[in-house]
Each structure stands twice: as structure tokens, then as C-alpha cells.
Write a structure and sequence with these properties.
Radius of gyration: 29 Å
Number of helices: 19
Distance between the termini: 88 Å
Number of domains: 4
Mean pLDDT: 85
Structural class: alpha/beta
Number of strands: 19
Low-confidence stretches: 60-66
Shape: globular
């Protein structure tokens, strides 16, 4: 068998596994399609006779690295067989933290290989590079290779994944370079373009392609899960045939549909697949059935769809009055490629170094809180007014993601009127003055996270103790627990739709609450919710970091910055020692985070903050003893 035919066989097999499990992502050739590799699906050349790739659970690339750290390699022996091995390759003298962590992972994997029956080789410690090689002991016949390859991959997965968990616990801010689903789709799209081959996710020529308009007032695509079957009626609720009725009789099992959600969404939501042709249903009449094949990464809107040149003659754009439209394969491919491509947002990296610069909290505490959030899934940052709890919450999310991706962060604020119906689901008035069952913000957020299981998502609840927590969370008090995540713990919601699957909170959702400890009007968090969160105290830090921050302004010199720190530290000591107040009432640094403009007077800026913001706060603290408030205010004087 030729080298390129073997590559295609391996690629087709791995992609088939991906279609069975969308989390099964693997690497393909991303660059250097030169002579000798112009037809290559993977890294390797015809002359070298080897193929190499890596998987979603492995660290695969770091800046400055020439190859991926962990790879599977097929080394062709002859036309009938190949050698199969796993390689871990990294420097023994790391010059930065990512490579230091990678080396620690390699050593952890080596320690965990002791009881396996695989052939294990590792070079000596005097070598510049750490090189671990784990081999399948016998040559693998190309004919019937798939079960052997799958078994080898699964065996190594079972060894490596626990090692990664242990290393992540040791280095909670580790950005491991794994392949996300959007990155995988981008790699596949680019490969297909370079090799001029059809996208492997598309079916054969015999399959039909359709555009299906979904009315969110009747059903919302995101209310359902991948693989769930739905019916679509050929007649409307008045019993009249839908527009272009003939199309309903043409759909065949295996046909693919673009699932477009109409007004007010006006976005492509998912790729659907026909599971049963037009038939009579006892309850709904004449219907065809389909399932959600996959949710799209980029929910292209109507304007983006109209801009596609491939759709210039498309029936959908000529007249969109109807439900089911016949489209060509080229039209389907154009929409599919647009919706599977990542959005063109520039997302910057975010590491412990950036967090250390952004926050007035010491680095070791940041790392401890990150570890806690990763373990518990739910944390509450509690502290005095102005300590920057909400700002801190967002930076924690960015730190766990390894990038400043706002699209995976949702921020809301609880209040006394907030209810289960706002948070999860309830009946709300629509444009027609009727009440319809509508999803709440947390329900939609969880569905979004379920559709992207390889990405972490963060739900931030500001002032979490302002709401009636048991009333708002309802049955989710159980589902948000770290060990109650996933479909095996799914349950019916209080308000549910007919034939709707049970709801669960996915493992990739993290909840961060903030709580103001100085607000006397708020009730204590009830114990049922308290045990489901880890609590962290955030206290004012008037130290060197804050001093350096103030001196970013050209009008605040070192002496002025030192005075501000000394005055605020003195005030907070007084508040902390007051028997009616305590540390939860100390004044935070965020009052001073809007530093003065270059032409401003620093002392006037300081006095305005004291007079207009901190003075009213102190008067509220000592509302029954204004003499104390006056004395406390004197501590802030610059004189």
C-alpha cells in the first residue's frame, strides 16, 4: 500500500471516531505543503515513510517548539505493515514555565508506565532532550489496523489523562496547548482546501441538502441536544400545507439540513440530519423526522449568509417565505464552512503573569483560588466594598481559559426581584400579549457550554447574596455540585416542554459569585448553597503593587502614593478593630483605580474621592455615632 493511501486510511478512521464523539479531536498537517508532502494529511513525508499526529487531551504545541510534545507515530515498514509508537519529546533545560511544566508531565507519564506490557524506552539524563518512546511490541498489519490503533490510543489515554490531571493540580494556571473543537474544525477546513478534497463531515453525493427555517416562538434549536430527534410538520397549525410543500415529500434519510432560526435570532444554529422520511404521526399529523447532528461554532447571521457569493442564485435568498428549501451541495458547503470557521475575534493570551500584573493580590493566593475553582467548580469571592471582586472574577475566568475570551463569560447581578423564571425558565409575555415558556439566562448558558464541551465557560453572579438563592436556583442546587455534573445526573426542570430531555449542568461550567460583606441589609447565604461553594475572602491590599499602579499617573509621585497608602491602611485598621464593624467593612482600593489625568492636580483628585465617595460610606457605617465617622475621616487628611 502506498504512503498516501495509508495516510488517507488513518485519516478516515480517526475522523469517523470524531463523528461518533465530537470531543475526539486530532491534529493534521497545518503548514509546509511542499514537494514531498503536497498530498499529506499528517506531518511526515513520503521519503520519511512515517505519519505523526496528536490528540485533544495532549499538550501539542508551545511557542518556540519545533515539534509537538506528545505524538502518536506510524512508521511504515513495508507495503503491508507499520510500527506504532507514542513519543514524548521536550527539552531537559526549559527556559520558560510552559516547557518546565511539559517536562514535569513527561516525567509523570514515565513513572506511570511501570505496570504496562508496552515496550518503553527513554534516553539517558545527560542528553539535551527528554525523549520517551512507548511502542506496540509487534508490527501492525495495514489490513485490519483500526482495532490495533484504537486499542493503543485508548491504552495510552488511560495512562496519560490521570497524569495531566495531577500536573494541572500542581500547576493550576497551566495553558496546555490542547486542540479545541474550533481549532480542530479550522485545521480540517484548511487541510481540505490545501488538498482540494471534500470536507469529510459532508455525506456522499447521493445525499440531499436542505435549508430549514425554525421559528423560535414554536421551538428553539438550543433547547435540544445533539442526537435528539424532532418532528417537523408539513402543515401549519391551521391545517394548511406549508410553502413549497413538495419539498417535504422529497427528503430522504441521511439528508442534511441547515438549521436556521428565524426572527428575532436570524442565525444558523445547527446542522441537522433527516432520520425518517415524510410519514403520519398520531399526534402531529404528516411530519418528517430529523436529529441535531452538531451545533455550529460560528452562528452566522442573515447578513453574513447574504454575503456568500455561492448563494447568489440560492432559492433561500430569492424568497425566504417558507420552511424547507432545496439547496445544492456547493451552497450547503459554503454555509457549512462559514459556520464551522472560528469567529474572527482577536483573543489575547492570558497567563498567571498577566493576572499578577492586573491584580493587587499576591501570586500565591491567585494560584490557590484558581486551584479551588478548578476543583470545586463554584466559588464565592467575598469582601468589603471596593476590593475589586467583580474585576477579580473575570480575571480568574481568563486565567483558567488561558485567554481573554469574553464570549465564554457571562456576567449578571442578582437582586431582590430576581427569580427562578429569570434564571432557569418560566412563563413570560410575548409580543402578542400571551404567555410563553421562555428560557432563562443560565439555562441558555449551560446549553452553549454543552455544545462546546472542550471549552471552559464561566458564569459570574455579582452580588449573589442579594437574591433569594433557594428560590432562584431551585433544583439546580443539586446540579451545580462538582460531583453532580453531566448527563448521568440530569433531571426534569420545574417548567418543561413536551418530550424535552432532562437538564444537566455540564462539567465545563464554572460559577463565580461575588458577595459584599459590608451590606447589613442582606440575609446570610443559606447552608444548602454554602456547602456547594468554596469561599474566599478578598481584602484591600495597600501595598507595593498598589503603589506602583498609582505612580502610572504622571501627577502622583512616590511620596503622594505612599501618603495615600498610609492613610487608607490607618483607616482600615480602625474599621477592623471596631467591634461593630470588622474586616468585612474595610475600604477597598477600587475607589482609587481611576487615576488622574496628566494635567490634573493629584491632591484635588484625592480629596474629591474622600469627600464624595468615602465620607458618605463612613457616615453610613457609623450612622448612630457621627463623632466616630468624623474621627475616621480625619485619618484620611493629607495635612
Amino acid at each position: 500500500m502506498s504512503y498516501y493511501k495509508l495516510q488517507k486510511l488513518v485519516f478516515d478512521h480517526l475522523y469517523a471516531r470524531h463523528e461518533q464523539d465530537n470531543n475526539f479531536n486530532f491534529s493534521v498537517r497545518r503548514k509546509a505543503f511542499t514537494k514531498g508532502s503536497a498530498k499529506s494529511y499528517f506531518t511526515g513525508t513520503e521519503k520519511s515513510d512515517y505519519i505523526t499526529f496528536t490528540f485533544w487531551f495532549l499538550p501539542c504545541y508551545y511557542p518556540g517548539a519545533s515539534i509537538e510534545a506528545a505524538t502518536f507515530i506510524l512508521d511504515k515498514i513495508d507495503k503491508d505493515s507499520f510500527r506504532l509508537y507514542f513519543q514524548f519529546f521536550t527539552t531537559r533545560t526549559p527556559g520558560d514555565e510552559p516547557n518546565e511544566i511539559t517536562l514535569a508531565l513527561g516525567k509523570e507519564i514515565f513513572k506511570s508506565l511501570g505496570d504496562t506490557k508496552l515496550k518503553i524506552e527513554m534516553n539517558t539524563s545527560d542528553k539535551k532532550m527528554f525523549h520517551l518512546k512507548v511502542s506496540h511490541k509487534e508490527a501492525v498489519p495495514i489490513e485490519g489496523f483500526a482495532p490495533v490503533l484504537d486499542s493503543f490510543i485508548d491504552q495510552l489515554t488511560a495512562i496519560v489523562q490521570p497524569c495531566i490531571k495531577r500536573i494541572k493540580a500542581q500547576f493550576p494556571h497551566w495553558k496546555d496547548g490542547t486542540i479545541s473543537k474550533p481549532e480542530f474544525e479550522t485545521m480540517i477546513d484548511k487541510l481540505c482546501t490545501k488538498l482540494s478534497i471534500p470536507h469529510p463531515g459532508l455525506p456522499t453525493e447521493a445525499t440531499g441538502y436542505w435549508w430549514l427555517n425554525c421559528n423560535p416562538k414554536i421551538w428553539r434549536v438550543e433547547d435540544f441536544v445533539v442526537g435528539q430527534e424532532q418532528n417537523y410538520t408539513s402543515h401549519n397549525k391551521e391545517g394548511n400545507k406549508r410553502n413549497v410543500y413538495k419539498n417535504f415529500g422529497k427528503v430522504k434519510v441521511g439528508d442534511l439540513l441547515i438549521g436556521y432560526e428565524s426572527t428575532p435570532s436570524k442565525r444558523v444554529k445547527a446542522i441537522l440530519e433527516v432520520t425518517r422520511e415524510l410519514h403520519l404521526d398520531d399526534d402531529e399529523g404528516e411530519v418528517f423526522s430529523f436529529k441535531i447532528k452538531e451545533f455550529v461554532t460560528n452562528q452566522a447571521d442573515w447578513n453574513q449568509i447574504k454575503s456568500l457569493q455561492e448563494l447568489d442564485d440560492c432559492q433561500v435568498l430569492r424568497n425566504n417565505q417558507g420552511s424547507l428549501f432545496d439547496i445544492t451541495k456547493a451552497e450547503f458547503q459554503a454555509v457549512y464552512n462559514l459556520c464551522l470557521a472560528p469567529t474572527q475575534r482577536k483573543v489575547s493570551d492570558y497567563s498567571i503573569h498577566e493576572a499578577d500584573n492586573d491584580l493587587f493580590i499576591d501570586r500565591s493566593t491567585i494560584e490557590e483560588i484558581v486551584t479551588s475553582l478548578r476543583r470545586k467548580k463554584n466559588i464565592i469571592l467575598q469582601g468589603a466594598p471596593g476590593v475589586g471582586k467583580t474585576f477579580f472574577a473575570k480575571r480568574l475566568a481568563f486565567l483558567l481559559m488561558g485567554k481573554k475570551d469574553e464570549s465564554r463569560v457571562e456576567l449578571i447581578q442578582f437582586h431582590q426581584s430576581y427569580a427562578y423564571e429569570d434564571f432557569i425558565r418560566g412563563f413570560r409575555p410575548n409580543e402578542e400579549g400571551k404567555f410563553t415558556l421562555a428560557n432563562g439566562i443560565f439555562y441558555d448558558f449551560c446549553r452553549k457550554a454543552q455544545a462546546n464541551p472542550s471549552e471552559d465557560f464561566f458564569f459570574i453572579i455579582d452580588e449573589i447574596n442579594r437574591g433569594n438563592l433557594s428560590k432562584i436556583f431551585g433544583e439546580l442546587l443539586m446540579l451545580i455540585e462538582a460531583d453532580k455534573r453531566g448527563p448521568e445526573f440530569a433531571m426534569h426542570l420545574t417548567y418543561r416542554k413536551e418530550n424535552e430531555p432532562r437538564f444537566f449542568v455540564p462539567d465545563n461550567v464554572h460559577i463565580i459569585g461575588t458577595m459584599n460583606t459590608a451590606d447589613r441589609s442582606l440575609a446570610m447565604v443559606d447552608y444548602a448553597l454554602r456547602r456547594r461553594f468554596a469561599f474566599w475572602n478578598v481584602v484591600p491590599k495597600y501595598e507595593e503593587k498598589f503603589k506602583s499602579f498609582l505612580q502610572q499617573s504622571k501627577v502622583i509621585d512616590a511620596a503622594m502614593a505612599a501618603k495615600i497608602i498610609e492613610r487608607l491602611s490607618r483607616l482600615n485598621k480602625t474599621i477592623e478593630n471596631d467591634k461593630d464593624l470588622g474586616s468585612g467593612f474595610m475600604v477597598g482600593h477600587s475607589y482609587f483605580c481611576t487615576i488622574p489625568q496628566p494635567n490634573a492636580n493629584a491632591e484635588n483628585w484625592y480629596r474629591e474621592i474622600i469627600e464624595q465617595e468615602i465620607k458618605p460610606l463612613l457616615q453610613e457605617y457609623w450612622y448612630d455615632n457621627q463623632n466616630k465617622a468624623t474621627e475616621a475621616l480625619k485619618l484620611l487628611s493629607l495635612n
